[in-house]
Amino acid sequence: MRQFRIADFGLRIRLSSFQSAIHNPHSAIGALALLVLVAATAPGRAQQWPVNSLDRPRPPVVDPGPDRPPAAPPSDAIVLFDGTSLAAWQSPDGTPAKWLVRDGSVEVAPGTGPLVTKRAFGDLQLHLEWAAPTPPAGEGQERGNSGVFLMTHYEIQVLDGYHNDTYADGAAAAVYGQTPPLVNACRPPGQWQTYDIVFHRPRFAPDGAVRDSARVTVLHNGVLVQDNTVITGWTVHAERARYRPHADRLPLLLQDHGNRVRYRGIWIRELSGP
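Below the sequence we write its predicted structure tokens.
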């Protein structure tokens, strides 16, 4: 059993009472104590393994079916890329976006840096489509790698995961470095893939403490791969994530990881937060 502090669960119970209650589960405090014990000993999906562990089990493979023509966005959507213009985007330093627009999609221009939206967002529903380069080149994290950074800090991994092994928390549709997808629903490179994301931003107390962690639900090619997953902090590489306070609204970011990943059909619906 791992060690824990009663204070971690927001309970003000004397330890002696807690220990006694475990042996008397029929009491009200006993039932509460047992719930605390279960919560303390059941690790979350994101915390069972070292970050980027190659020993972590890979998600099972699911065939999502063939790709489909893009659908029109809903009437209340904010269209961020319609296949013709990067007017809604810029480089992080405020200069014009440098990725290449052609044939109805925008392609990463390796070495030019990420794209960020000019507009900032909080809670949202996001739809986008992406395609890994073909023919495929590289292995693992060097094959068809990009990323969708919600609020510029929380990455949903983009990766060519079709017959391409990598660590589980770096797979396509992972909350990078935290939570692998429930399944691998990748299509072959060159085929269009969809992400449908519902994201609820973190809430911070006035002193900067985390009041509510961010949560995300992701459908990859129509298959549920993140189910109201708790995000444990900012995306970082090869170390545990942690939160830092930030504004209630921040831009969406698409990552330049050196691979010519293409995107199309990007739109957002803003959601009303609690």
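The domain at 51-270 is CATH 2.60.120.560 (Jelly Rolls).
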